[in-house]
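Q: How would the structure tokens look for this protein?
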Amino acid sequence: MDDDKNLTAHESLEIITAMIRQAKGNARDNAFYFLLWGWVVTLANIGMYLLIQLNYPRPYVVWSIVIPAWIFTMYKGVKQGRNESAMTHLDRISAWLWVSFGIVVFTLIAFGYKINFQLNPLILIVAAIPTLVSGIILRFNPLIIGGILFWFFGIVNFLLPMPYQNLLGALAIICGYLIPGYMLKSKNEK
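A: Here is the predicted structure in token form.
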């Protein structure tokens, strides 16, 4: 006798619905990451703008605040992964999408000297992808809109002088991460 059971259409739909519900719950729990990175990147953008205005010789030093945020993110992600009872296929796709985004950003930073460190427009445009896809996975319109806004702000950023790229970058992060992050957190608490 075959151990595999043929599922009815209704049972298959129930399993798929449960997986989507689990993925949405897991992803909503990750509102923390949108808030953490939203605040870190917003503060770094504003800090760099201010340091440029003060003629500080190395205004990029403010971006060192991402190092502890990155370490904490890795620690929390590993810890959270161990504690989750079920990781769905959508959870794995989402996780690898964000890991890929991190690798792309790291690569852009590592080779930024080749383009005079004009990274803000590129990072915003690249950030549009995981943000938009996360919104689609969660069926959460504020993240979808945030992803679209990242594309828009990234394009506009190409047209601005460097110091103003940081201000627009801060605004983009507020619209793309912080506002949706707080909305996601609020929705999760209900």
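The mean pLDDT is 86.

Residues 162-189 form the longest helix (28 residues).

Upvote if useful.
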